[in-house]
Design a protein that fits this description.
This protein is an alpha+beta fold and 210 residues long. The protein has one domain. It contains four helices and seven strands; from the N terminus they run ββββααβββαα. A seven-stranded antiparallel β-sheet has the order 2-1-5-6-7-4-3.
Length: 210
């Protein structure tokens, strides 16, 4: 778990859950400790399946499929008076991001009893992963594993590690006018700014010309 004492008070990453219609932040769940390691995987779209496919060799159909994996650690042992229910509230907030609400489940059951069919499930809040101001990503949580490592006298978890996998949602998933699509475009533009600052001559890789 990273506390970065040399940096004073660090910026903490975390999740923000956003109303997709209004763009209003509904709930913020910061990491207690920033992850020590973040693993990113990118799979490009549109590369040719077979070597020698001249029509497809340099084509990109859209943004790559990008995923993140990391661990978030939480610890209530140092200040138990601040956590009367242990870590149950913060763990529940994370877990419920992949649940339909209880009222939605009840409504679906009522419609089924009335012989009606729900055409489209209710839209869930948009999940936004924040890893600093320059990495604000619309994501879908694809895996969530909780290891509860210590408990108080009421069996509330007071130390836990949450292992998370997320997939970045792009304009292909959300569209260009959706709040998440706009966040994605901002994320990609920030990458383009970073990449534009890299300017090395061919000599740096041992070449004088191509």
């Amino acid at each position: 778990m990273s506390t970065f004492p040399e940096a004073g008070r660090p910026v903490r990453g975390g999740f923000v859950f956003v109303d997709p219609g209004s763009g209003r932040a509904i709930k913020t769940v910061p990491f207690q400790y920033n992850p020590d390691t973040v693993t990113r995987t990118l799979q490009p779209q549109g590369i040719g399946n077979e070597p020698g496919d001249r029509l497809e060799a340099l084509r990109l159909k859209g943004p790559p499929h990008e995923s993140y994996k990391f661990d978030a650690e939480f610890d209530a042992t140092s200040a138990p008076e601040r956590y009367p229910d242990g870590l149950s509230p913060v763990l529940s907030a994370l877990e419920l991001s992949i649940y339909p609400t209880a009222s939605q489940l009840v409504e679906e059951d009522r419609l089924a009893e009335d012989g009606k069919i729900e055409i489209a499930p209710a839209e869930a809040p948009l999940t936004v992963l924040v890893l600093g101001r320059k990495r604000v990503l619309p994501v879908r949580i694809t895996e969530l594993s909780v290891a509860e490592e210590a408990f108080d006298g009421m069996l509330n978890p007071i130390r836990a590690k949450v292992s998370l996998g997320v997939r970045v949602l792009t304009v292909d998933d959300l569209g260009h006018s959706h709040k998440g699509g706009l966040l994605y475009l901002g994320y990609q533009r920030q990458k383009e700014i970073h990449a534009g600052s890299v300017a090395h001559p061919l000599a740096d890789v041992g070449l004088s010309t191509l």
